Amino acid sequence: MPVKRRNHGRAKMNRGHTHTTNCLNCGKLVPKDKIIKRYAIKNVVDASSVKDVSDACVFEGYELPKTYQKQFLCISCAVHRRVVRPRNANVRHNRVPLYLKLKMEKAESRPAKTEKSE
Ligand SMILES: [Zn+2]
Fold first, then answer.
1. 6 lies in some domain
2. Which H/E stretch holds residue 70?
3. How far apart are the CA of 83 and the centre of ligand 1, in A?
4. Do 62 and 34 sit in the same domain of this protein?
5. Long-range contacts of range 8-15, CB-CB < 8 Å, 24 or more positions apart?
6. Are residues 54 and 110 in the same domain?
7. Over its length of 118 residues, how does the chain's per-residue pLDDT go in tens digits?
8. CA 11 to ligand 1 center in whole angstroms
9. Residue 4 domain-assigned?
10. What is the pTM of this model?
């Protein structure tokens, strides 16, 4: 039977079993090596009212607090939220992580934009 991914979408590395965690969104139990992990840093106040709150603040240079959360998402929720994207077979076989590839593409496109503006 053909296999879609050679690691079956996991990073088990010759271990027999890994602990499970619940998905943040749907609560599904997912093995920890398969789950999509993202570290989310968000402002306590939403972006539209940051200016109003900082104007009303008595203290000068007061920085609004942030929430730090490690997010665990199952594959279905990660795809739905577009944290990860489905890729075609040729791209899947390329072992460079998607976020690194996007970062490299961004870096390549930046100097091209500056050259046009100059
Ligand atoms: Zn989920």
1. no
2. strand 66-73
3. 12
4. yes
5. 9/34, 9/75, 10/34
6. no
7. 888 888 888 999 999 999 999 999 999 999 999 999 999 999 999 888 888 888 898 998 888 899 999 999 999 999 999 999 988 888 777 778 778 888 988 998 876 555 555 4
8. 18
9. no
10. 0.66
For residue 102, how far is its CA from the centre of ligand 1 (angstroms)? 24
**Residue 23 near residue 77, CB atoms below 8 Å:** yes
What is the count of structural domains for the chain? 2
On whether residue 113 sits in a domain, the answer given is yes
Q: State the pLDDT at residue 17.
A: 94
Pair 52, 103 in one domain: no
Residues in the chain: 118
Q: How far is the CA of 63 from the CAs of 26, 43, 55, in angstroms?
A: 33, 10, 12
DSSP state of 105: H
Q: What is the pLDDT of residue 116?
A: 53
One domain, residues 75 and 116: no
Centre of ligand 1 from the C-alpha of residue 36, in Å:
10
Residue 95 shares a structural domain with residue 75: no
Domain that holds residue 116: 87-118
